[in-house]
Amino acid sequence: MSKRNLYLSNIPVEEALRRFQDALGSQLGAKTESIEVVHCLDRITGEAIYARCNSPLYNCAAMDGIAVISACTRGAGEASPLTLEEGADFVVVDTGDPVRPPYDAVIMAEDLQEAQGGIIIRAAAAPWQHVRPVGEDIVQGEMVLPGGHKIRPIDIGVLLSGGVTRIEVRARPTVAIIPTGTEIIEPGEEMREGSIIESNSRMLEALVRHGGGEPTRFSTVPDEYETLKGVLRKASERFDMVLMIAGTSAGREDFTAPLLRELGEVIVHGVAMKPGKPVILAVADSKPIIGVPGYPVSAYLAYENFGAPVLMALSGFLREDVPVVQATLTRKLVSSLKHREYVRVKVGKVGGRFIATPLARGAGAAMSLVRADGFCLIEQETEGVESGETVNVLLSRGLDGLGHTVVSIGSHDLILDVLVDLMPQLFPGVALSSTHVGSMGGLLALKNGEAHIAPFHLLDEETGEYNSPTLRKLFSGQKMALIKGVGRVQGIMVRQGNPEGISGLQDLTRCNYINRQRGAGTRLLLDYKLGEMGINPLEITGYGREAATHMAVAAAVRDGGADAGLGIRSAAQAMGLDFIPVGEEEYDFAAPAEALELPHIRTFIEALRSPQFLSKLEELGGYTERQCGEVILIDG
């Protein structure tokens, strides 16, 4: 085999990679395996993971102090202190203790004064003050982690808190690394003229491990055709990927290309890059085989350009830098002068600038770490940051991904979790970032240029129509796009068997209710319906108690924290609640018309129309899809 192995191609890097990936086709799909959560650090989730229980599991004290009946503390003040009797008016609680009926508030120990026969208080307690409601952090049935997510230490804690002990993760691809060459010696062996210390395999071994693979380094194979052939055949049969080092050029003993032509198919030999031109991309036994040039820099560039993308597809493992970016803050942040504060934020790129939206800041809000894209640092001796100011954000994900992230701020629905999980699967590299602030809050964020889209459902009292009249009024003079979402049923969620005998909104005046936050479309619908019926909202016990999502309302009802709450049918079904329909509504997405030109907004619309999404809607129940993904242009 003395004939020189000439190669003539000079294919651009991107084209070479495309040909290689096309030739591999479905072989690039990742395998999965089931492992215990405690052993899953740095692994990649194989599917979306949903919480199996609430956290906290019950209404509990957020402070050390006493649990009281808030109504019995009315009138207490500095000028009119009130004495409470233990056992009758209060019970002593420590942080984390259950708060059971009839007690519905906690007064912290620092605000108490001991007295003979009881405790003196000098301020009334508001309902649910210093009480962590059931499901405040994690709600059973909500998505904890999407598929394709690299598991971090905080994720392990949240998974366990949500009752998840075993998960499906992507299996680590096995990679054979075969150094070749008669002149090659191992590090530490005696040096002589013509010897080359073999180091490339160790570098590639580390790169593979860093990229989520399981490397196996073979002993150096001499430049003997049949010996190389036997080793290569064995490796291609046993491993998911093979890296064969050296022998890729045009020398008399460069056998890699003819070997691969005999055992499989050479897709590319010779790429338009320097160094690294003689790289070989081949397929044998349906496995990716890369002939890596022998010079160290060439070997490194060959792996980075071709080995790493293929390994990433096999493992789902993303290697990302952690840069610091300047971003515009969407909400004012007040901070203590005593501390440097790390505020968890969602980050996206809207209109050419990075936008940072703060997440929950409470010490118990572990899910905010999972959802965060990074931290906004508020330094010590700083009282806070105003909305609209520029802040530095230390990112916890790659910078490139932020430019292809759809930033959604607005009303909550379970379909957003579905889309967060589904979009990267349908369109690799594209993501959806969702923050829940209610319909009006989302539209205001959109108006301020802080989001790409705003999910909302707002009934216009004058016309009885959903959404389009609100867009015309709020965005007067601006051309807007109404991206149609889903039809859904709103109704009263009650415990199984409907123990309170609730038949309609008129019965809310005789039960303990839990509401949505101000600006939420569900709350506006309730107010509209109550107005039609002539019911004063203040007649409803719990009208002022707010929850941020439908699932949080459902959790409170299921666990006895409330008798009823208005929400969507899918949330009721997820929590096993009975459901009394109140009316149908339209849950849509608003966006500036010019945003339709953005590639990631177009992929969002495609995701809404996809068979996978429509199938998930049917599985969830409570939705209609008549106009899903249709775009209506509206002149403000």
Structural overview:
With 636 residues, the protein is of the alpha+beta class. The protein is 25% helix and 28% strand. The protein has 16 helices and 37 strands. Strands 30, 31, 32, 33, 34, 35, 36 and 37 form an eight-stranded mixed β-sheet that branches. The protein has a six-stranded mixed β-sheet with strand order 16-13-17-20-19-18, with helices on both faces. It is elongated and about 95 Å long. The N terminus is likely disordered.
Largest sheet features: 8 strands, mixed
Q: How large is the share of residues in beta strands?
A: 25-35%
The radius of gyration computed from the alpha-carbon positions, rounded to a whole number of angstroms, is 30 Å
Shape: elongated
Total strands: the figure is 37
Number of helices: 16
Q: Percent range for helical residues?
A: 25-40%
- Helix-strand makeup class: alpha+beta
Compute the separation of the termini in Å: 76 Å
- Mean pLDDT across every amino acid position: 88
Ranges with pLDDT <50 over ≥5 residues? 1-5
What are the SSEs and their pairings?
Elements: H1 13-24, E1 32-36, E2 49-50, E3 60-61, E4 65-68, E5 82-84, E6 90-93, E7 105-108, E8 113-115, E9 118-121, E10 131-132, E11 143-145, H2 153-161, E12 166-170, E13 174-179, E14 184-185, E15 196-197, H3 200-210, E16 214-217, H4 225-238, E17 241-245, H5 256-263, E18 265-269, E19 280-284, E20 287-292, H6 296-315, E21 324-329, E22 333-334, E23 341-350, E24 353-358, H7 367-371, E25 374-378, E26 384-385, E27 390-395, H8 399-402, E28 405-410, H9 414-426, E29 431-436, H10 439-447, E30 454-456, H11 468-474, E31 479-494, E32 513-516, H12 521-533, E33 546-547, H13 550-558, E34 564-568, H14 569-575, E35 578-592, H15 599-609, H16 611-620, E36 623-624, E37 631-635
Parallel strand pairs: 13-16, 13-17, 14-15, 17-20, 21-24, 28-29, 32-33, 32-34
Antiparallel strand pairs: 1-12, 2-11, 3-10, 4-6, 4-7, 5-9, 8-9, 18-19, 19-20, 21-27, 22-26, 23-24, 23-25, 25-27, 30-35, 31-34, 31-35, 31-36, 31-37
